[in-house]
Structure formats: structure tokens, C-alpha cells
Design brief:
The chain is α+β, with helices and mostly antiparallel strands. The protein has one domain (5-127): Nucleoside Triphosphate Pyrophosphohydrolase (Alpha-Beta Complex), CATH 3.90.79.10. It has three helices and five strands, in the order ββαβββαα. It has helices at residues 30-42, 100-106, 110-127, and strands spanning 5-11, 16-18, 47-62, 65-78, 94-99. The protein has a three-stranded antiparallel sheet. Strand 3 and strand 4 (65-78) form a beta hairpin. Helix 2 (100-106) runs antiparallel to helix 3. The radius of gyration is 14 Å and the shape is globular.
Length: 128
């Protein structure tokens, strides 16, 4: 997040708009992995974690295999209002900063809308 904006990743090759996410590397905490993955995918790396938003269990089919995993989400912000990208990010993604309402409307997957709502609630609670 940056102010009242949400960082989403447009993935034109799959016609998707998603939240950044990824996998744990050996020895990483969930928080460290989340920061690393956002930087790798979007190019934004000057991040601080504001809140742990929780986890969800996900199951889906991919290339004929049933995949189950636990996803964990964090509310983050760029430090000191810095909107500079540290790197290019992954070529498959186009990072975009959207308002909460637009982010909710654009998300490809319903489950990710829930995380945007949780992030907004945590953001609003932390402003006071």
C-alpha cells in the first residue's frame, strides 16, 4: 500500500490482475519472503511490513494436478512515501497502484478481494 493505493500486478499474458505472492526460500521467515517476493515481482523494494493479515488454505488444479497450499498475506507500505522502483520486477507483471475500490473491482480472483478488504481495515485502524 501507498497511502490509499493498493499495489496490484497486471499479468496480461493470463489476463489476470493479482496481488503479489510467492514461496518461502530456505531459512526465510514469512515476512522476509513476502518483502522479497513483492520486490522481485514489482520492482518495489523499499518496503516495511505494517501488519500480518493472516492465512488462507487454497486448492486448485494446475496442469492436471491438484495443488494445495497455505497463503499468508501482509499489509506493507513503501518507506517514507518512496514510490521509486528499485528494479524492473518480473517482465510478466505490470505493477499498478490502484484505489481500494478500483483494486477490488479489477481483481481476477474473489479470494484476493477479501485480502484487499482486510488490508484496508488494518490500514484504517492504524491511521488513528
Amino acid at each position: 500500500m501507498q497511502g490509499s493505493k493498493v499495489l496490484v500486478l497486471n499479468r496480461p499474458s493470463r489476463d489476470e490482475v493479482r496481488l503479489p505472492k510467492g514461496h518461502l526460500d530456505p531459512g526465510e521467515s514469512y515476512k522476509e519472503a513476502a518483502v522479497r517476493e513483492v520486490e522481485e515481482e514489482s520492482g518495489y523494494g523499499n518496503l516495511k511490513v505494517i501488519a500480518d493479515l493472516g492465512t488462507q488454505d487454497v486448492a486448485y488444479c494446475y496442469k492436471g494436478k491438484k495443488i494445495r497450499r497455505k497463503e499468508r498475506y501482509f499489509l506493507m507500505a513503501l518507506r517514507a512515501g518512496d514510490r521509486t522502483r528499485n528494479g524492473a520486477g518480473e517482465a510478466q507483471f505490470e505493477p499498478q497502484w490502484l484505489s481500494f475500490p478500483k483494486a477490488l473491482k479489477c481483481m481476477t480472483f474473489k479470494a484476493e478481494r477479501k485480502w484487499i478488504k482486510r488490508a484496508r481495515a488494518a490500514y484504517e485502524a492504524g491511521k488513528g
